[in-house]
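Lab meeting notes turned into a lecture example. A postdoc, R.K., suggested we walk through two folding results consecutively so the class can see how the record format repeats. The first protein's sequence and structure tokens come next.
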Amino acid sequence: MHGGGVLLSVCATACAAVIGVRQARKETREAREARESVWRAPTPGAGAAGGRAVFGAVALLALVPFLLVTLSHGYGAESRISAVPFREILDASAHADLDLSDVRAVNLVGNVLLLVPFGAAAAFLWSGRRRVLKTALAGAVFSLIVEVAQYVLSLGRVSSVDDVLLNTAGAALGAFLVRRWTGRTRARRLTLPRPSRAGGRT
């Protein structure tokens, strides 16, 4: 089930990337038109609000693969709790022959990738330098709720603190990639030509 969830997560990431690129191009085009026209005043507030609404919807959709995987029935007879941090991560990493055919490797990689699309989309909901931290905290809270639900619903899964850590890392990774990308986009916007008072370009 993790393999299918990772595939869905990759698809969600691709969709988020496409929407993000189109939104960024739209905002860049509007900013260029506003600067080139002396009669048109820029309206960044409306564009920003529309962008947040779009990425808020994408963030919710990106959680669907995560919920399909984490809230499905596991292979265990009963649910249990693993409350020791890094136990499962270190146990899986200790095997030299670990590859993607190993269920432990799929579990580690999958728990990170599943929240990358959410982190990438949710990062657009905040501004400033702490967007990665805010997104990571949102991912951690959501992951913790899911782990508790797994145990309460008796899904035959291991409610692990390591899963929360890996999910949080995935959300933070998505937000970090967005921050790097938007930083480059913002730098390109600052180089756009500004109209002079006579209507020409400076």
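The second example is placed directly after the first for contrast:
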Amino acid sequence: MNRRPSIRGVLGSLLPPRDLLPLAALALCPVLTCRFLATSPPPAHAASSRTPAVVPVTWPQPAFCEAEWFTTTGGTHGGAVTAHQAGDSGGRRIAEIEDGDWIDLGVVSPGSVDSVTVRAASGGIGGTVEFRAGSPAGPLLGSLTVPFTGGWDRPASPTARLTGAVGGVQLFAVFANPAWRAGAADLFAVDWFRFDGPAAGGG
């Protein structure tokens, strides 16, 4: 938005709700900043009546994240790719997930998020999703298992509890199953992530 709204002495820039933005964008616009302009003489300790107070207002943690919103991907077998799939949220998912692959979900606040639910489907052997802080090899915050779900069009929604994180961290989802072998089917495909807890507006 380029316009600067002015309402009853308040100037500021209004950003869209964070649950409408990719996680990759959160580091670029983490707060709504307002300037409250005094309409009466400033207190004695104030430097100037023209010096506004800047009050940061933090949006809630986004409660929903499409899997294809990842910022970067990598891993032992090259990382995940975005694929089109009828019936998935937004018509897309991430696929070609093999042992050791990972995605970067950007800077979030697991310290204020209790759990993450993942919608995933597997026509392969399944595996685990590990949530790690700072890097794909960083501290483990929680994990969940995605089993064989009966086919690539039969999703399940397991949940992982998150613990041990304090403040905003770079969150990575790491996909693993040491039993996977080259030439075998993908472990699973992921449609979305849902964050639950006080910072996600619930729990």
